[in-house]
Amino acid sequence: MAAPTELAPAPARRAPRTAEAPPAGGPRPGTPNRGGGGVVHALRGRLWWVTLLVAAASCLISFYAKGGLNVESMTATEMALTVVSGAIVALVALLAPARGRVHGVWPAVLLFAFAALSAVSIVWSVQPEYSWLDAGRLLAYASAFAAAIALARAVPERWPAILGGLALSAVIVCGYALLSKVFPASIDPSNTFARINEPYGYWNAVGLSAAMGVICCTWLGARRSGHALLRALAYPAVGLLLTTLVLAYSRGALAALAIGLLLWFAAAPLRLRSAALLLLGALGAGVVLAWDLSRHALTTEAAALPERVQAGHELGVLVLAMLLALAAVGVAVGFGTGRRAPSAPARRRAGQILAGAIVLALLAFVGALAHSQRGLTGTISHDLGALTNPDAKAPPNTAGRLTAVASVRARYWKEALRVFEAHPLLGSGAEGFRTAHLRYEDETLEVRHAHGFVVQTLADLGILGLALALALLLSWATAAGRATHPFNRSWTPWRTWRELPAGARPGWRALERGPRRAYSAERVGMLAMLCVAVVFGAHSLVDWTWYVPGDACVALLCAGWLAGRGPLATAGAPAAAARPPLAAAAHAQTAGGPLAETGPGPRARRLRTRLARAGRQRLGLAAAAIVAALLAAWSQGQPQYAEETRQQALGLLSEGRRAAAVEEAGRAVSRDPLSIEALLTLASVQQAAGQSSRARQTLERGVREQPSNPQAWLALGRYELTRDAAAAVHELQAAIYLDPESISPEAIAAGKPQAIQLHNEYIQALAAAEAATLKSASAARARAAAAARRAGRPHRRPARARSRSLRAGP
Question: Which of these, 481, 564, 586, lies nearest to 527 by C-alpha position?
Fold first, then answer.
């Protein structure tokens, strides 16, 4: 059921300290155990301030960047992440001790390569502006990943602070989300849905934060080390997180949490502790959820605000009572098991009862499906058809969607695959789905992402991007396996094939019995980080939450730490003494330290040369990290600077300062030449300043540089509407071809202003073009008659042909 090293009963009393020397590589007597994470040990080991720092940084990203859709807040977040990450890498390069091999290099290189591919895709992107923004986001993510690798190498003993800080930040984020339902008039008065969507503005992102927080809190409450009070606080935390997860009505987050917990129970040894924590937390959350789902004001859309306020206050009282009750239960369980740990037979019986209960629940579920109206196979086939049907209607944003199977994701996936078929090798450019899918959509649902990492990558970066992403996944899995050894297996690299026994081959091999199979506290923590990363990855397969920095940075921190940690020290073996930083070694030599030589012999000179060369390498690496971070931050800030300049140009135009407005709009275009909005603003300002020819040249430049963007064609067609009707018809037809639903009968019948305006403009252009054609034909006949009269021969009037209208579709 579990490894005996983790589930062995605790000793009745602590062994007295002795003044004997510790084993080689072990801690000195009286030094804190920095891997334990208890209150006293945390204070002595200074883990508490690292925990608070991690929680504060995560909360700041979550509350400021929100869902990642606001360019201004997202740009500031990206720049801060890039600069801070570069500074961390530089400090580690200068001050970290040499610990042998550097782990996690290949995953970091491949992630930066993925970001570079997104930046290069600007060349062929259907909307280069979005590709630039996406490349900046990926650069920030890659920098944060590299910083996590560097921290894992420099301060590997701080891993409890990472998990503790992430658990605390998840509780804060989800607590605020629940407060938005308790106090809707003060926090989220504009939300007419029954689902929780604060602080991200997207309910599935809230659900994902809760799911990853459940994993962290499960580790916090199930571990053997640490103070009992901290373990007890994990019980109300799990109850709060599960309540938030269900009230977000996020089916994808629930499924991702199920996958993460399945991996946790299969790989980690603390199964009974984890099961007790989750069952008690789910019981407390279930009471609150049962009351919430029975209230009409909390489960229906567009409920009156006074009713929501009254029901929200009652919900708050019930949540507070749940938290107090679970805290008391956690204290009772912690101190009860601390005084007398359950015996091995009792743990074995509890495990058998738990496994039997799970099997009975599965059998009951299968039996219920078998006795349903469609039967077992009929229900499964019907649900699969509803899940993959692109014409399925989206379920309402109420509690009923938790049991619904249908989703609109199949429609987005279908459109993404059609974009991939049109651009199979390189895709439509980073975040090109946002524009390219308009050509293939069947309904006017406004969507920016394909709701799935695989289909989004295929649509944006094609086969090349997906191959690079798969290589990144494999390299990261190999690196993370060195610190976790899930299922007691280890990846044997190809470079060590000569050291294997005869007949053995490199690959995914089972660990031999011995110290490496022991589950130390750090290994259990690394497994928790692995589960957090798996939850995020599983959810990203069916949603676009990797664009949400608050969720993505949590997963990047865990994934980067796993990649950079490397193999853990085996239990019972002396840890290798860390070598001092090279700068300290050089100082020790020059100051007559242990490395100093008695005379300036050849060996001392060679050692001094090697140290100086290594110092220059470290200094160069740190300088390169700082310079690269500053350059990347400058590149990330240009689109936002251009947008601010564009807004200033519009302000100057409204004040009547047309010359200054033209100059400011030109500066916006120079700062971000890929922005179609900047080009359109420049054209409108030039037209208002009486520079019609230059305005037309600017619009033609937009069409020439972004021929697959319907906005460019639409702007040029509207400009030509009063000048050249035939040209306006051609350009409006191009815009309609690239976005057919913009003028569909359904959109017009729904009363959408943009669709009605485009329809009227197109009809006006058709009428003007037909009138111009008739007028030209009449003028041609008149000229022919006049020429015949001048020649002295009778003029035969041709039969009048029936005029044909230009077709009303693209």
Answer: 481
Phi, psi (degrees; rounded to nearest 5) at 508:
-90, 100
Percent helix, percent strand, percent coil in the chain, to nearest 5 = 70, 0, 30
- How far, in Å, CA of 797 to CA of 162, rounded? 90
- Chain center to CA of 44: 35
β-sheet bridge partners, residue 309: none
Q: Per residue in 174-222, pLDDT tens?
A: 999 999 999 998 888 888 888 999 899 999 999 999 999 999 999 999 9
One-letter amino acid for residue 630 of the chain: L
Q: How far is CA 467 from CA 84, 328, 371, 507, in A?
A: 30, 51, 45, 21
Task: Report how far apart, in Å, the C-alpha atoms of 99 and of each of 244, 449, 574, 787 are.
Answer: 42, 42, 15, 97
Output the CA torsion sign for 770, 772, 777, 778: positive
Q: Do 553 and 148 touch, CB atoms closer than 8 A?
A: no
For residue 390, which of 352, 443, 324, 347 has the smallest C-alpha distance?
A: 443
Rounded to whole angstroms, how far apart are CA atoms 383 and 379?
A: 6
Rounded Cα–Cα distance for residues 578 and 773 (Å): 86
* Beta pairing partners, 508: 491
Highest mean pLDDT among 296-300, 354-358, 559-563 belongs to 559-563
Contacts for 23 with CB less than 8 Å, ≥ 6 apart: 574
**DSSP code string of 639-668:** HHHHHHHHHHHHHHHHTT-HHHHHHHHHHH
Rounded (10°) angle between helices 251-267 and 521-540? 150
Q: How far apart are CA 675 and CA 394, in angstroms?
A: 33
Per the CB < 8 A criterion, the answer to whether 178 and 244 are in contact is yes
Q: Are 438 and 448 in contact (CB under 8 A)?
A: no
User: Residues 472, 464: contact at Cβ < 8 Å?
Assistant: no
Instruction: Show contacts of 97-101: CB within 8 Å, 24+ apart.
Output: 97/154, 97/578, 97/579, 97/580, 97/581, 98/579, 98/581, 98/582, 99/153, 99/566, 99/578, 99/579, 100/576, 101/566
Q: What is the spatial distance between Cα 284 and Cα 170, in angstroms, rounded to a whole number?
A: 18
**Greater confidence, 503 or 386?**
386
Would you mind telling me the total number of residues written for the chain in this entry? 810
Whether the Cβ atoms of residue 219 and residue 530 lie closer than 8 Å to each other: no
- In this structure, are residues 260 and 539 in contact, taking their beta carbons and an 8 Å threshold? no
- Which pTM was predicted? 0.84
* Average pLDDT value for the chain: 81
Contacts of 799 (CB under 8 A, 6+ apart): none
Q: Identify the pLDDT of residue 579.
A: 40
The Cα–Cα gap between 336 and 89 comes to 45
Q: What is the pLDDT of residues 579-633, one digit of tens each?
A: 444 344 434 433 433 333 344 556 566 555 654 555 777 888 889 999 999 999 9
Phi and psi at 103, nearest 5°, equal -95, 155
| Closest-CA residue to 170 (of 207, 201, 202, 144) | 207
Sign of the torsion formed by the C-alpha atoms of 536, 272, 162 and 286: positive
| Residue 742: predicted pLDDT | 77
Amino acid at 734: A
SS3 assignment, position 489: strand
Question: Of 739, 663, 660, 731, whose CA–CA distance to 702 is shortest?
Answer: 731
684: its two tokens: 């409108």
**Number of other CB atoms surrounding residue 780 within 10 Å:** 10
Spatial separation of the C-alpha atoms in residues 225 and 581, rounded to whole Å: 31
- Residue 759 CA to residue 338 CA, distance in Å, equals 74
Cβ-based neighbours of 694, under 8 Å, separated by 6 or more: 686
